Amino acid sequence: MQAESAIPARRRIFLHVLADPAVLVWVILAILVGCCAVASPLFLEPENLKNVFLVQSTGLGLATLAQAIVVLSGGIDLSVGAVLSLLTSLAAGLYRSHPGLHPLGVVVYLVALGAATGAVNGFVVVRMRVTPFMATLATMSLFQGAVLFYAPRTIGGIPRSYRFISDGTVAGVPFSILLFAVVLAACYTLLRENRLGRHIYAVGADPYVAGLSGISVRRTRFLAYLIAGVLVGIAASFMTARMGGGGPKVGVGYELDSITAVVIGGVSLAGGAGSLLGTYAGVLIIGVFYNLMNLLSVNAYLQIVLKGLVLVLAVSFYAKRRV
Amino acid sequence: MDPAPVLRLEGIRKGFPGVKALDGVSLELHRGEVHALVGENGAGKSTLMKILSGVYQADEGRILLNGAPVAFHSPHQAQLAGISIIYQEFSLIRGFDVTENVFLNREPTRWLGHLDRRTARERTRALLEEIGIELDVDRKVGELSVVQQQVVEIVKALSVTASVLIMDEPSAALTDKELKKLFEIIRALKARGVTVIYISHMLDEIFQIADRVTVLKDGRVVGTKPAAELDKDRLVRMMVGRSIEDYYPALAGDRGEPLLEVRGLGKRDQLSDVDFQLHRGEILGVAGMVGAGRNLLARCLLGLERPDRGQIRVRGQPFAPSGFGEAMAAGLGFIADDRKALGILGPMTVKENATVASLPSYLSLGFLRHAREASDTRSQVERLAIRAAGIGQTVETLSGGNQQKVLLARWLLREPEVFVISEPTRGIDVGAKAEIYRIMREATRAGKAILMISSELTEVIGMSDRILVMHAGRIQGTLDQRERRATEEEILSLAVGHVYSIRAGGAPHAG
């Protein structure tokens, strides 16, 4: 690279830019993509690229935005996966009893339910004063149990009209991409350009200082969970379309994957630091990682082992940098 | 004199369980003055300022701001009313930039809470200009120097049009040059009509910057005087002036060989050239203001911190502990000042707390010998007159004095040669205090040595055979009490950095 051989000052700037996690993850993603291209010729097939970067990443991407906002506020959400399973099942159940529903109505229904689950998490954390880890561990069980009680098996039968959300195109662009781009932009604006976003960062960085400045720490925390619930509702709307149904296993692994993506993306698990652009790269890294494993036909259970390894390495990497 | 004071405190009282922190404090602050607040540790300065800034609420009394009574329920309310406090530890978010910190929670916004960064930036720049400081408003606060962070705090206060600014030990972490800059800023604030309450242990600073001085002692106002009418000696005399109470046991008659020898001990610029010996049978008191380096000294001796320079010897053997375990093995014991956080195991029983430091001696073949544990604990409970329902009572349910005795029991069972005890009677009632003093003296009669760090002057004078007074990381002087008792005045004048010694025998580094 040119900068490497240039004058030292330039090199310092180069290293300084790299030290920003939001930049670093994109570099790591690029390197990973390069490795994939070398490891498997199939990787660069247009159909595969489209799958990895656009289609498969949307569900996890939406769920990870939810996770990122909660983590930035100083919390964590272990219930993401269970809520996804619950909401997709409820959507499929709704279609079974009312086949003629307009897709938009179903989306509104899911977003409202998502907001309700976020409110439950927020209530337990803020009003009942349970630590976020324990609170969402408990609600994870609550929501997972609820979906198994409601429908122990997968429910199918989502009509073609609804599947537009995952399969449709608008002027040649897949609708799912437009959906994700709009939601990402909204979240980015909320966090970077809005007063509430500033408060979310402040509460996550130092709740004591935030309180001394008159910010309502409890209200901010609650709103972070509420917004996360809305985002999970949107994620569930997409996944219902993509799966063509819903079931208790739809969201399995999403809590871990979303946390991993958030961590890889450089958001501090302690809260208050990190950006959504890094988070998005984190999502893509996980997508590429899964794709590579599949192309190389790595055993599915071994993939889970490797995923755990990646999470440990990412956390330890950032722990060293943030002494 | 001034017909309309900007702020008036009338008969402020505040109590905490077991302590009367403020006992009827009245105070008047004029517009645009720098008002210094001085007093020993525990005189009530911090409590008073916390009431003024809305952290605590007074039990009794009134606060009048511009003639109207006010009551603050949070620091934010006080801030909005124009009273801001700048703490020793800054309340800034390090990852946020200057502007974001200044306008935290008062962000200028457009529609739907959309941030108006430009307005915030411009207003921050204007405020900086007003006090004559150049600072990049986009820099992250974590990258700024201490005095720059202080500037951010000041600008934050000014941005809500502060009329009263409280500075709690603002100079603690500043270099001389930075201090000059701070004084310039304070003068600029004065010129704007802002009243500054300046809290400091450094008497020199007070004479440089203050217009008037109020002395607090034991939660009461000793007096308020124009700084021009005072000199250092008169000020120190106002700060002390209390006789030693009579419940202290007699001092040691004679002392044995040195158990602990410290030569040239230092760590960074926080601890320098510390020399002393601690002898068998002796209680060596360590006095000094908060931040004088007393705790760091203790931590270096106990292996909790690694000194950069100097040597320690224990019973003549070189000693460089790399952890507390090694210090314990060498015969040191430690009772920390924060009983709850660093002392007791709250949910565990008296017996478990008493034996935890000497468990190996209660093991046989890997099993705990409960009967011996119990009998040893019982004998300590009896000897120290610990009031507990039984040795099975959990320690968190005991009174502070009894908790402290359990900690003493823990170390008496272990039988270390050298005790380091920090604030032995903090927050303990008078009766239990006397008993703890008796136990400490008994231990030294049995041939132990005690290094006692204490912020209570009466305790230091009452208990110590010799007193080390620390200031700014150094031993400012050693006072030998075997000839005659030191006075609070002597200790305090050394502790605030007075160089000359009132007493012939008390020259720095005597011994």
Give a quick set of tags describing it.
heterodimer, A: 323 residues, mainly alpha, two-stranded antiparallel sheet, 15 helices, 76% helix, 1% strand, globular, B: alpha/beta, 6-stranded mixed β-sheet, 22 strands, disordered C terminus
Characterise this structure.
The complex is a heterodimer of chains A (323) and B (511). Chain A has 15 helices and two strands. Chain A has helices at 2-5, 8-19, 21-39, 46-72, 80-97, 103-127, 132-150, 164-167, 175-193, 195-205, 207-212, 217-243, 254-264, 276-295, 300-321; strands at residues 169-170, 173-174. The longest helix of chain A is centred in the first third of the chain and has 27 residues, at 46-72. The model of chain A is unreliable at 1-7 (pLDDT under 50). Chain B has helices at 45-52, 75-81, 98-102, 117-130, 146-158, 176-191, 203-209, 232-239, 294-301, 324-329, 339-342, 350-355, 370-383, 400-414, 430-445, 457-463, 488-495, and strands spanning 7-16, 19-29, 34-38, 60-65, 68-70, 83-86, 164-168, 195-199, 212-217, 220-226, 258-267, 271-279, 283-288, 309-314, 317-318, 332-335, 363-364, 367-368, 418-422, 449-453, 466-471, 474-480. Mean pLDDT of chain B is 86; it is low at 500-511. The A-B interface holds A 193-196, 198-199, 201-202, 205-206, 208-210, 212-215, 272-273 and B 74-77, 79-80, 91-96, 100, 104-105, 107, 109, 112-115.
